[in-house]
Design a protein that fits this description.
Elements: H1 2-16, H2 21-25, H3 31-39, H4 43-65, H5 68-85, H6 95-113, H7 121-126, H8 134-152, H9 156-167, H10 172-179, H11 183-203
Length: about 210
């Protein structure tokens, strides 16, 4: 399909060179304007939109499916879908919220055909921060591994809200839009997820301080 070829070209171009003139000139363009241009078939606008959101979407996907290769495939599917359906965006939410909603749907569809109950070590390493000195990096890695272990023990519903609220800084209202449930349901899931993580961390002798 031409759409698949187009988005593959967008992904390759974005990752190999982020210094094209079109990308530079469009840095300040809003997501809504970019999406409007994408709806008209503007590949440069698609390239900018992809560059702006692909990392966050990839991290969201990898925490949902727990597998880097699968997340990579789904990332391409997400932006192919964005390319195809940009004209259907109704501006009832932010573009980033709309894209994460697409990512969630794609991930859930993938999970129905295979079982990923835990985040694997490869996924944890993919989101690890290694910008610190060795000692701090080791401490962060240990804490991150423990946290990922706790997250993997949550239900899928609870893990999703934690990821969206704390990793992607989505509001309760935005999370409700993404997963399609009432805001009070999101609040309840966040409460129970935090409580469960605190219990799991305490069992390892660690006081919760990040939530």
């Amino acid at each position: 399909m031409q759409y698949n070829h187009a988005i593959s070209g967008v992904a390759a171009a974005t990752r190999s060179s982020a210094k094209t003139s079109s990308t530079s000139s469009a840095k300040a363009t809003s997501d809504e304007v970019l999406l409007g241009l994408v709806a008209k078939g503007d590949k440069d606008a698609m390239r900018v939109l992809f560059a702006r959101h692909n990392l966050r979407v990839f991290r969201f996907l990898i925490r949902m499916v727990g597998n880097e290769a699968t997340a990579e495939d789904l990332l391409n599917e997400v932006f192919v879908h964005v390319w195809r359906t940009a004209d259907r965006f109704e501006a009832r939410s932010q573009v980033s919220t709309w894209i994460l909603g697409i990512a969630r749907y794609k991930a859930l569809t993938a999970l129905r055909s295979r079982t990923f109950d835990e985040l694997d070590e490869e996924a944890a390493e993919a989101i690890e921060d290694t910008a610190d000195d060795p000692e701090v990096a080791v401490q962060k890695a240990e804490r991150s591994a423990l946290l990922q272990s706790c997250l993997s023990q949550l239900s899928s519903a609870h893990r999703q809200v934690v990821d969206l609220v704390y990793y992607h800084e989505q509001s309760i209202e935005e999370v409700a839009q993404i997963i399609g449930v009432p805001q009070n349901t999101v609040k309840t899931r966040v409460f129970h997820a935090r409580k469960r993580i605190a219990e799991l961390m305490a069992a390892q002798g660690v006081q919760r301080s990040w939530l």
